[in-house]
Write a structure and sequence with these properties.
Blueprint lengths: L3 H11 L3 E6 L2 H9 L5 E3 L1 H7 L10 H12 L6 E4 L7 H14 L3 E5 L18 H14 L6 E6 L2 H4 L1 H13 L4 E4 L5 H10 L4 E4 L11 H7 L3 E4 L2 H20 L12 H7 L2 H6 L2
Parallel strand pairs: 1-2, 1-8, 2-3, 3-4, 4-5, 5-6, 6-7, 7-8
Helix pairs in contact: 2-4, 4-5, 5-6
């Protein structure tokens, strides 16, 4: 059986468009695996929010790595992880790559925001110098142990410096050795098409309802040549809504019987987390 990083490389090189839902803990990873996806995205924003904190760079590297271990132990699928800014300068990036790789993820993206960062669809972002980001990319490539481990460079320059500067940064990051490029938060379908046309090599795009980027169909993204489509926050947003509805019902009636049909059964819950398999080994 091939290493998950090799599996991910093969999927990328095959040219298919990989839809990677954003997961944030072991349970969401297990559910997404059972739903039949080919790869998963460990969303930094969703991981942060799952601790009750916003996506503004508050979690430490080791906190994130601990969660990544939980995720990778709950799935056999390749996991691409959000590494924010690499948690500091190029020295921090080296340690981030080491720990992420040891945690079992198959690739990561680092971004050119200053540290601490902000969610890519929030206002008020600032960027580091392009040359400093190129150094981070070169450091990440040099540090990885498995050559199939995918280094993805993300630029947040559209909102800060404009679209043309974002393309220029992306080209520089590709030249610095990034395996894949991620231009965050394009604002029009035209920009999405230009990114695909103007930038060489594999590309990742962020698609979720309600962000700055318009939703484009999977078929269109495949036609344009995007290899990975991440959907970072939709699972968590759905979970938040479901919990709010359930809590409101419990607060009003004292139990959840009124919405029983909206809950998985006790048996279904235990099947999802494979309780029987664990007990059969005891």
């Amino acid at each position: 059986m091939s290493h998950p990083a090799t599996t991910l490389r093969n999927l990328i090189e095959r040219g298919d468009t990989i839809i990677a839902p954003g997961i944030f803990d072991g349970l969401s990873a297990k559910l997404a695996t059972q739903a039949g996806f080919k790869a998963l995205y460990a969303s930094g924003g969703a991981i942060a929010r799952s601790t009750g904190r916003p996506d503004i760079g508050l979690l430490t590297l080791t906190e994130v790595v601990e969660r990544l271990r939980e995720i990778t132990s709950s799935t056999t699928l390749p996991v691409v992880a959000d590494a924010d800014t690499g948690f500091g300068n190029e020295l921090n990036v080296a340690r981030t790559v080491q720990l992420f790789e040891q945690a079992g993820v198959c690739g990561l993206h680092i971004e050119d925001q200053t540290f601490p960062k902000r969610c890519g669809h929030l206002s008020g972002k600032t960027l580091i110098d392009q040359d400093d980001m190129c150094l981070k990319i070169k450091t990440a490539v040099k540090t990885r142990e498995n050559s199939d481990f995918v280094i993805i460079a993300r630029t947040d320059a559209i909102a800060v410096e404009g679209f043309d500067h974002a393309l220029a940064r992306a080209r520089a990051y590709i030249a610095a050795g990034a395996d894949m490029i991620f231009v965050e938060a394009p604002e029009t379908e035209e920009q999405i098409e230009i990114i695909a046309k103007e930038l060489t090599g594999p590309k990742l795009i962020n698609m979720f309802y309600g962000g700055k980027t318009p939703l484009v169909s999977r078929d269109k993204l495949t036609e344009l040549g995007y290899q990975i489509v991440i959907i970072p926050s939709d699972l968590q947003r759905a979970a938040i809504f479901a919990m709010q509805q359930t809590l409101a019902t419990i607060a009003e009636y004292g139990d959840s019987a009124q919405i029983a049909e909206q809950l998985v059964s006790f048996k279904e819950r235990e099947n999802i987390i494979e309780t029987a398999r664990y007990l059969s080994n005891s």
